[in-house]
Amino acid sequence: MANFQITPRAAFVESNELNFRSLYLFHTPLGSNQNQSGIVDSNVTTGLGATVVNNWPICDGPSPGATVVARAQGLHIYAGNWQNTFSITFEVERFKGSTLQVMGISVEEGEWAIVGGTGQFAMTTGVIYKKFHEQRSDGNIIELTVHGFCPMLKGSQSRPTKVGPWGGNGGSDKDIVEAQKRPYSALLSL
């Protein structure tokens, strides 16, 4: 008989929390701007084994002129459901070259698991929530919300986090693009 046990474990690990909202994945399997292509045909009877390579752009808005901030690059394989495994490779300057390693079932709704990362997102774990946004003639747009935790590795510097305007309702958010500056030691004389 199976025995499942989950034991709480207290361990202090300093980490950064990722909360990326309002990202839009452009899933375009049809038309002249396809961003995926079949590489292995499926079994004629069962449909199993179809393999498709994808290079889906992830943008900061749902409009055609939105800025590409990352790309979901990898594979999806049909095994009763579409199993996805890919890297989200960031192109926006702040995270350029960093990746999130992602896997899960389906494309349009539900969740994908974040099972790792590289660069600023090394060893990240978390979830990407997916919500259907818009059907188009050549594919669809999926809204993504990324929530994860990234341990601060020894020797790495954490990036400052934008929390919004201070001092009331006025002003505007500003992105912090430079490395954090903090003193390593201080000497006080009394």
Automatic annotation (TrEMBL):
Signal peptide: none annotated. Its main location: secreted. Gene3D superfamilies: Allene oxide cyclase-like (2.40.480.10). One of its GO terms (cellular component) is apoplast. Keywords: Apoplast, Secreted. Belongs to the plant dirigent protein family. Dirigent proteins impart stereoselectivity on the phenoxy radical-coupling reaction, yielding optically active lignans from two molecules of coniferyl alcohol in the biosynthesis of lignans, flavonolignans, and alkaloids and thus plays a central role in plant secondary metabolism. This is Dirigent protein. It comes from Triticum turgidum subsp. durum (Durum wheat).
